[in-house]
Amino acid sequence: MLVVAAAEVVAAAVVVVVSMVVEVVVVVVVVAVVVMVVVVVVVVEVVVVMLVEAAAVAVPFAMVVVIFALI
């Protein structure tokens, strides 16, 4: 009788520990995914800003080159 009760207590403890470990793993994975998404968004935003700035510099320069070429 005591052995069965002890086995039930151990099984319950194992279930609690495993559920806590699974919860921690899920939280870590969710945080990692959120961080990766934020990093990707920031990198894309920086690249887009760089491309827009490069276009803003290149277009007037190209217009000047075309104007001088036409003269």
TrEMBL record:
Keyword annotations: Membrane, Transmembrane, Transmembrane helix
Membrane-crossing segments per the record: 9-42, 48-70
Statement: the UniProt record of this protein carries the keyword Transmembrane helix: yes
Transmembrane as UniProt keyword: yes
Record-given protein name: Uncharacterized protein
Lineage of origin: Eukaryota, Metazoa, Spiralia, Lophotrochozoa, Mollusca
